[in-house]
Amino acid sequence: MTAITVLGGGISGLSTAWYLAQKVPANVSIKVIEASSRVGGWIRTDRRHTPIGEIIAEAGPRTLRTGKSPDALSVLELVDDLDLRSHVILSDAQSAAARNRYIYYDGTLNRMPSSLSSLASGLPAAATCLVGGVWRDFTRKSNTPVENDESVHEFIGRRFGQKVDDNLASAVMHGIYAADTKDLSARALLYPFWLADRMGKRGVISGLRKVARVSRARHAGRSVESVDGERRARNPEFWTSVDGASMYSFRGGMQTLPDEMAKKLRERPNVEISTGSKVVAARVGATGKAQIEVDGGRVIESDHVVNTLPLHAMQGVFGSDQTPMLDHTPYSSVVVVNLTYQGKGRTPVDGFGYLVPRASQHESRALGVVFDSCALPEQDTCDVTRVTVMLGGPRFKELFGSKDVEAEAKLLALDTVQRELGIRGDALDVHVTVGAQCIPTYTTGYVDRLQQMHEWTKRQLNGRMSLVGAAYGGPAVPQCVNHARTHVCDHLNLDTLSQSPQCVSGLEEIIKAFDLPA
């Protein structure tokens, strides 16, 4: 019997198992191995009871973006296939949450422009540096470094000036990666701009047109991503409503998605999901197949292994054969504090929330704050205002050190909303989640290490292992889901799994995206 093992039961692992289950016949065994006691990874929704009713608290991702990108469509189609349409709640593209996003700067909330028309009222104080930054890049001679990578901080400072990074870019990266721009790779995270700097005669702006031409040439002949007509015809109301939305979640919270996937997978007789099983070793057995050993001594033999483990969980699993990616990819730790207050409309402005840039770190100790009740009011079943304060990331050690993290985070979060949002009084509920090593940091030199990881992976387990996960194609849920889909559907030859090694890494498409033009 052909057997496939998926290491990890987070969103990447579950998505991989889901797409495999759609493709392979019922006589192919699919095993999902998860170290923790639950599936879903960092997607976690907790139900909390307050004196006035039940609320939900998101400990990880809380919304998903709509749109026509492959990543966005992968998740929307997954939602459709899981019959979760009636559970979806949408935020209209014209809603305050879609239009109003803020940066905390100079002690105030600065609303960022969301369209050309919104510029009519002028730039907020945090963004006035953009004018000088654009002029600086347009008029300054090329100063591209010889090295093929540099930090986001160095790149933006070199071309647009220090303030653009301190006021704006650092805030955005806090929100996505919970990391400092001084550590993040410009080549990996700002690739079109990094490439434009190398192609333009006078910097980034002059090179963007050339980059656009290269991009069009690369994608010539490819169809524009869209929902196929048959799918849209089956559920026209759902797809029409999605077209007018900017983001969405589920009435019961984000955990609805992995829970439903796991439920439907477990209904299949050829799928087994094991929790509480930590992978301790991987090797090639006497038959030439892959063997995965979990704590307790259980050994699972497989024709192919899809490894979705975080990189730090892979340390030691493959013996002494290491690759730089394992040693040079730190993970950020984030503390999420969900605060619930009685009464609606307690935030001073409506919007999705705000991020804190490096320039404001002397004023705020948060990475950012999300206005949950404004972003997704339909999740509130009682008269409350929910906000979430994110702490830690590059300041984790500074803020918490040897302190009781949960107790300190509670104090910091309550102080943050009181000073920065003017929300006073006792909270109905305070829920603290410590996400230790939850987001991979794409540090300088990442693309070169990714290429090395690609070659290393093809050597492992006699060519019977490939990779999917947040450390490769991006940490967001849609990126993880689409990585799983494209790998299973486009790169694995499922008809020959038991006959010969696949010798694919799962990183082919990601590496190709970083190819330099001829």
Structural class: alpha/beta
The tally of strands reads 20
Strand count, sense and barrel status of the largest sheet are:
7 strands, mixed
Shape: globular
Sheet-strand content, in percent, reads 15-25%
Distance between the termini: 46 Å
Unreliable stretches covering 5 or more consecutive residues: none
Give the strand order of the largest sheet, numbering strands 1, 2, ... along the chain. Answer: 8-7-16-17-18-15-19
Cα-based radius of gyration, to the nearest Å: 23 Å
Whole-number mean pLDDT: 95
Number of helices: 19
The percent range for helix content is 25-40%
Q: Tell me the quaternary state.
A: single chain
Helix/strand layout:
Elements lengths: L2 E5 L3 H13 L5 E5 L11 E6 L2 E6 L5 E2 L4 H12 L6 E5 L3 H4 L1 E5 L2 E4 L17 H11 L12 H9 L1 H16 L8 H4 L1 H9 L4 H15 L10 H6 L1 H8 L1 E6 L5 H11 L4 E4 L4 E6 L5 E5 L4 E4 L1 E4 L16 H4 L3 E12 L10 E3 L10 E5 L1 H4 L8 E9 L3 H5 L4 H17 L7 E12 L5 H14 L5 E3 L9 H15 L16 H5 L6
Parallel strand pairs: 1-2, 1-14, 2-10, 7-16, 14-20
Antiparallel strand pairs: 3-4, 5-9, 6-9, 7-8, 11-12, 12-13, 15-18, 15-19, 16-17, 17-18
